[in-house]
Amino acid sequence: MSKQPIRTHWVFKTIYLFCLILWVQTKGFSQKQFTLLECVDMALENNLQVKGIEFTKQNAEISLTQSRHAQLPNLGFNANFSNSFGRTVDPTSNSFISQSILSNGLSMNTGVLLFNGFRIQNTIDQNKLSTIAATKDIEQLKRDISLNVASAYLNILFANENMAIAQNQLAQTMAQREVMSRMIRVGNSPENAIFDLDAQIALNEQTIVTATNNRELALLTLRQLIRLDPTIPLDITTPAVTPDAAFLELLTIDELMESAFLYQAGIEAAKLRVQMAEKGEKIAAAGYYPSLTAGFNLISNFSNRFQQLVGVENTVNNLDVIINGQTVTVGFPGQTPVFENIPYFDQLNNNLSYGIGLNLSVPIYSNYNVRAAKNRSVVATGNAKNNLEIQKDNLRVTVMQSFTEAKAARARYNASEKSFLAQTNVYENAKKRFEAGSVNSFELVRVKALQETAQNNLLIAKYDLFFRLKVLDFYLGKPIIIE
Length: 483
Fold this sequence. Notes:
By secondary structure, the chain is α+β, with helices and mostly antiparallel strands. The protein is 62% helix and 19% strand. The strands form four sheets. Strands 2-5-7-10 form a four-stranded antiparallel β-sheet, with helices on one face. Strands 1-6 form a two-stranded parallel sheet. The chain has a two-stranded antiparallel ribbon with strand order 3-4.
């Protein structure tokens, strides 16, 4: 009587697990599946580090434009307006007056640097290098992001395949349990013989849960890399992952190293920064040289007290004199000058003055400022060269390690493939013997566990080799593609 509840329990459990597996496999049909290229494009578009370096590049471009304009003459215009009271100087006549005066002055000046130790040209060259270096930084960061996205993408593919394998293993174990149930019902096996398969089913279910969690974590990692809105479902296409390591036989470490140095934009950026530092030395050394500038100015002014003589007026000046004790008024003819205010624009034209000049500045002693700047620029050059060598050494180590790991991954994959084939043969043989009743459930579970371990090892080795090969493609300058 105890067999029927057990069978009913496992029937419902089987139906439930089948529905769960079907839901997991089909839930992605209603949502968009992203390709690797789409994920990379989204990551590059949304990555904040890329945006930060792009801002740095924009600043470099602004500095370059500014340094180019430093070669051109400057131009300035000044105007002043004043109302003075009491004794003051009339700006138009330079004479003292004791009346209120309304005045206006205008001036325009320009200047151009003729020579300053080639500081401007070296600054232009330095800013050009800075702009190119920022472009190389962006290129390198984009390649690094592409590799990281490809790694996360592969982790999801691995998790999907691992989950499918775990589901298939569970289905096989449940089928074997059904065989054991039939054998128990006909009396060919004791009831306790099914316990081993029950334990294996529980282990397979645990594996599915772990694989599902790993898939969710892999999806979360990719979502964070591409900065996808949490409300948007994320699923990916499933391209074939077939590692082709044949080119490893032809590839040498010298060829790989040469390509890595050629295609890694970060190395080019470091070289450009060495050249920038060398330009900085020349800029600092310009402080030792004299500077020569040329200037031109144009000045005019207006005063409401500035008048001009327009003529004379005949007048009679009466003067009282005493003649023979009598006061007599005598008229003396004379002339009085007539003035009138000069119009505003006429004054500006009449008072116009201009001049041109040269200014030579010769440094003699600058309180060690120039020499300190020169010494600091030399140190900056040494530091830039040292950073370049550090990046080169890091790249050499990384490339050699990647090459070695790829060859080791190929060996592991070949060994795992042979092991899986061998364990599969052993398992298929044990399964037939189990169905014939010549092998007990404990032995079948043991053999099945070895076969599942070999299968998982092969899956891990396959994805590990595939990723290692993509890393080599990265250093060979090839685009990261999973088709």
